[in-house]
# Entry
Amino acid sequence: MAPEDNTADPGPVQKGGKYNDLHPLIQVENLFLRYGSRTVLKNISLDIHRGCITALIGPSGCGKTSFLSCINRLSDLIPGCRVSGRILIGGSDIHGPACNVQALRRRIGMVFQKPTPFPLSVRRNIELPLREHGITQGTDIDAIIELVLREVGLWEEVRDRLHSSALSLSGGQQQRLCIARALALNPEILLMDEPCSALDPIASGVVEDLITRLRGRYTIVIVTHNLAQARRIADLAAFFWIDGDAGHLVESGDCRQIFASPAHELTAAYINGARG
# Structure
C-alpha cells in the first residue's frame, strides 16, 4: 500500500514563522544518558512540536547527536548505555513495556551526517526497507518509490537509473536518496544529524530547500552547527551546552527570538561567536 498523502495538512506553521496551535509530539522529561559511569546528557526536558522544524544547536560534544539517538532508541545498540527519565511520543512512553521498538523506528526516520546509501541499486535502497516492514506487493512498492523520489526532487534525475548503483550518484543526490528512503515508511518524525555538513554549498542548498518543503508534513529535529542554516529553516531552536563533561539544555523556544534576544548569556555568547 502506498504511504498516506499528508500534503493537505499544512501543520501548525504558517508562512512568516507564525504559529497556530502548537502541540508537542515528543515530550522529553528529565532525560539522563550514561555510557557506563560517564554522564553524557543530564536532566534534559524539552517539548518538540508537531509539524515544526526544531534545530538543535551548540558546540561539538554537548550531546546533540546522543539526544537524537535516544528518541528512536538507537541508544539501545550501544553497550553500557543507560537512559533514565521519560520520552513520550504521542503521549506513549517509548521505554514502557508496551513499546514495539520496530514500530517506533518505523515512525521515526533517520538521516545521518554522511550520506549512507546501501551499496545496491537506487531502487533497492528504497525497496529493501519496505519489504523488511512487510510491504511486498510490487505495484505498491513501485508507487512508493516514485512518490518519495518525486518528493525529494530526484525522480526526473534517476528515473532511467533506478537499477544503477546508488553509489554512482553525487553526494547531494545520495543524501536526497537517503531522505527518500526514510520517507518511504511514512514516518511522523524525521531526525537529521547535520545532513548538509558533508555536502558542497550547492548540494547543501538543495537539501536545505527540501527540508524546508517538508515543514508541516513531518516533525523534524535537525542537528546543525551552521547557525545561519538554523536561522533560515528552523521554527524552534534548542541550545545545548557542556556542563562538566555532560551536555545539558540551556534554553529553547522560538528560533527568531533565541537568535534576536536570547534569554541566557551563554546562548548570546555562542550565537555571537564569543563562545564555542
